[in-house]
Design a protein that fits this description.
The protein folds into 2 domains: 46-139 and 264-338, Bordetella uptake gene, domain 1 (D-Maltodextrin-Binding Protein, domain 2, 3-Layer(aba) Sandwich); 143-255, Periplasmic binding protein-like II (D-Maltodextrin-Binding Protein, domain 2), CATH 3.40.190. It is 49% helix and 18% strand. It is built from 13 helices and 11 strands. It has a 6-stranded mixed beta sheet with strand order 2-1-3-10-4-11, with helices on both faces. Strands 7-6-8-5-9 form a 5-stranded mixed beta sheet. Helix 3 packs across helix 11 and helix 5 crosses helix 13. The longest helix is centred in the N-terminal third of the chain and has 32 residues, at 2-33. The relative contact order is 0.17. The model is unreliable at 1-36 (pLDDT under 50).
Length: 340
């Protein structure tokens, strides 16, 4: 009987330990399953840094600086902007792509996101697979400008001057919206201009306004103030209709170049691997921020058009980015052949 009692006690103890282990595993499993909702409930718990892959002073920087306070108000956290310019935006893109995917390092980029792979052939930086899209933010048309000391006063006079092959045109870096606009302008007019690359639109604007470089095709957020105070001449807006903030600037069609329409679009991204709960929370916050009256007024003053709530979503940004890559890839290759 004693042996039987000992055997029974051993079996009971073993079963108790096994049950305890299974219970522990079950508790761990339930904790993991509940992690995503809990994470979304506590995010964000500290300031968020948004990397703008261009120097201060350009249109992309201006748009993000208008968005930051509205987004921070919704998220109840500070939104810090860090400018990381160079290599057509790919340095800043790489910074975010390699960041911890915890939702505290984000990327705000323009159309340059669409052309990074085609123009740079980056093997470790894919504009689609290296990021989690959060949502689109705004569209901004391009405008062709020159310093007040540049002799031509109309687009036709600019193109006539460019026939001598001595007109220079600034760009805010390889693969930037300004470079794409200049490439398409040369392709549309069958003219060659001398490209002068900068690390961002801010430095390019300064030099064009100072008449060190002849032309620049950039966005109104960075150029409108210079146009209004007379430091720059504007020859055409690359859209179907004139802008309310620059009512005296004709469209390219009105200026004699029909069909020339170029806009830069902007989107918000997180590093690959960021929790869907976090990207969803950011997208919801972005949609609310874009409805902020102060943000709308700010964007209207610089010629930017905020997107709709349906466009400020991960799916919409992913679809638009992929479509834009398909649109730009053959154009870049054709224009590159025609201008070299």
């Amino acid at each position: 009987m004693r042996d039987n009692d000992m055997t029974t006690s051993f079996l009971r103890a073993s079963m108790t330990r096994a049950f305890g282990s299974l219970l522990g595993l079950a508790l761990v499993g339930s904790t993991l399953l509940g992690a995503a909702p809990a994470l979304a409930d506590t995010y964000p718990s500290r300031p968020i840094t948004v990397y703008v892959p261009f120097p201060p002073g350009g249109a992309t920087d201006a748009l993000m600086r208008s968005l930051a306070p509205a987004l921070g108000k919704v998220l109840r956290q500070s939104v810090i902007i860090e400018n990381t310019g160079g290599a057509g935006g790919t340095i800043g893109m790489s910074r975010v792509a390699n960041a911890n995917p915890d939702g505290y390092s984000l990327l705000f980029n323009n159309v340059a996101q669409s052309v990074a792979a085609t123009m740079f052939g980056a093997k470790n930086l894919d504009p689609v697979t290296s990021f989690e899209p959060v949502g689109m933010v705004a569209f901004v048309p391009m405008v062709l400008v020159a310093g007040s000391g540049f002799a031509p006063n109309t687009l036709k006079e600019v193109l006539a001057e460019a026939k001598n092959g001595k007109v220079s045109i600034a760009t805010s870096g390889f693969g930037s919206a300004t470079q794409l606009c200049s490439m398409l302008l040369m392709n549309a007019t069958h003219l060659k201009m001398m490209p002068v690359p900068y690390k961002g639109a801010g430095p390019a604007i300064v030099d064009v306004a100072a008449n060190r470089v002849d032309l620049l095709c950039d966005q109104p957020p960075g150029t409108a103030a210079f146009i209004k105070d007379g430091r720059m001449k504007a020859y055409g807006i690359a859209t179907k209709q004139r802008l309310s903030i620059l009512p005296d600037v004709p469209t390219f069609a009105e200026a004699g170049l029909p069909g020339f329409e170029v806009s830069s679009w902007h989107g918000l991204y997180a590093p690959k691997g960021t929790s869907p709960a976090i990207t969803a929370a950011l997208s919801k916050a972005l949609q609310q921020a874009l409805e902020d009256p102060a943000l709308k007024a700010s964007y209207d003053m610089i010629g930017a058009q905020p997107v709709t709530a349906a466009q400020a979503t991960p799916a919409a940004l992913r679809d638009y980015l992929q479509a834009d890559i398909r649109r730009w890839t053959p154009l870049i290759k054709d224009v590159d052949k025609a201008t070299n």
